[in-house]
Amino acid sequence: MTIIYLITIFAMAVFLGVELITKVPATLHTPLMSGTNAISGITIVGAVGILLTGVPLSDFGWLGLMLGGLAVFLATINVVGGFVVTNRMLQKFKGRKSS
Amino acid sequence: MMAYETLATLKDVLVALLYLTSAIFFIVGIKRLAHPKHAPQGNFLGAMGMLIAFVTAFIDFGITVDVAGETLRFESGYWVVILLAVLLGAVVGVVSAIKVQMTSMPQMVAIFNGFGGLASLLVAGVYYQLSLIEGALETTALIATVFSGLIGAITFTGSFIAFSKLQGLKIIPDKPVTFKGDLAFKLMLLALLLALGVLYVLDPSLALYWGIVMGGFVLGLFLVIGIGGADMPVVIALLNAYSGLAAAATGFVLSNTVLIISGSLVGASGIILSAIMCKAMNRSLTNVLFGGFGGVASSLSDDDVYAGKVKSTSAEEVAMILKGAQRVVIVPGYGMAVARASSAVKQLSDALEADGIQVTFGIHPVAGRMPGHMNVLLAEESIAYEKLLDLDTINPQFSSTDLVLILGANDVVNPLARDPQSPIAGMPILNVDEAGTCVVIKRSLGSGFAGLPNPLFALDNTLMLFSDAKKAVEEMVRAYKEL
Fold this sequence. Notes:
The complex is a heterodimer of chains A (99) and B (483). By secondary structure, chain A is mostly helical. Chain A has helices at residues 2-21, 29-39, 44-51, 57-60, 62-93. Chain A has a domain at 28-93. Chain A is 76% helix and 0% strand.
């Protein structure tokens, strides 16, 4: 049953995404891309999740731990870098109506 | 004391509501991105949504309510690793986001996409590894693991190749790299990986998962090396979609709603952008990914088109024409980015406007190397976004324009697109030839990405200014001010 519920959410979100994105003008396509790119760093939630486990290191293994840490690191770059660079771009677009 | 059953339910409800809140922040954030004035606020809302999701992850995965044992505990797990990774990642992210030049934005977006994809496949892989210890995954979660691994891997190496091409690292050439039977090779590799995926779902093992990931790395590599520079806008948009879909797949592995919602929003965004880019080239996605130009031989030689008809001009002469103009349209292309000419363009536009000349910019959807590339470069120079006009808005205005300045653009202004026999037939172009005079600033008569001669350069009302874009515009500004 859970899977049906998850697939429903997925399908609805795709349609919502299409509706939202088609309203963004071409001028803002680059910030849109880098902004949504930052949102795809949401995988950080899963990355943090796997490291919050109680599984002892002997079972988890150093490799597992390293890969988990790498996932958190990369997702953080994606999120933080993405939002900061998008903000930098958008500040240039904002409020220069009559130059 | 509250019963532990209630406590467990309470935790689940709280987590679900917080994830929902975070998803709403993302949705409203993207909605606000639709207008330049509200867009920074939209981006801020997105960042807040991310913060909420991040904090919620600690409640979701850290707090365990043991109903049978009547205990509640917080599992801090490997918090040192999390802390270090987040700090390091934040520093790297902020520094690169602040330092990157606006002209390097396409490769920046490309590499960030790649990081997102790699993170998603790592999460799916390690989560699967943990499930071997803590309890097996359901079949649906196993299927999702395959998709997460495969899409994540393709996103990572594909983005790396795109980055390398855009950055000019010369690891692989900017031109499409193709070899005999490459399409068959790619299709066979994909089929093999899907077969391995089925095998993995039936009889999962760590070795098989990482094997699929390795195969995905190879596939991502081969998918992007075959694509040339001017098709990059499509590829970057598509990789953006993939990074989202990889996150959504990881959401299915973890049964996590916020991952699924955010991932599919990003997936939809990337797919729409790729579709817009394809439409702007009148090509199908399949054609961009597997066909490429090159396949169609042009019957026109450069000599037929150009011989004796090309008139070259000087910056001084253009300055004189500008002096007498009332409406000027500037059409920028990738050449403007390469020559870093945008600040000179701003000076020119300021000088013209000071004399009451109307200046607007005609921007083709695929000008540059990513969607909206030209707009970002011009916005960087404080050129108001109202002056940046898209194809449909600017095209009817060319007939009443005195002078069009074409800066490093070629295929997007090639009138051959109107000839049904030509390889770019049907591609929507900027109708610059309807203007009084066209000045094309270009280093040589060399052809654009489509490998075609451009009859525009030989028209009676076209003047060629053979020069570096930045140098040419700077000379023009100087000459104009001296008049």
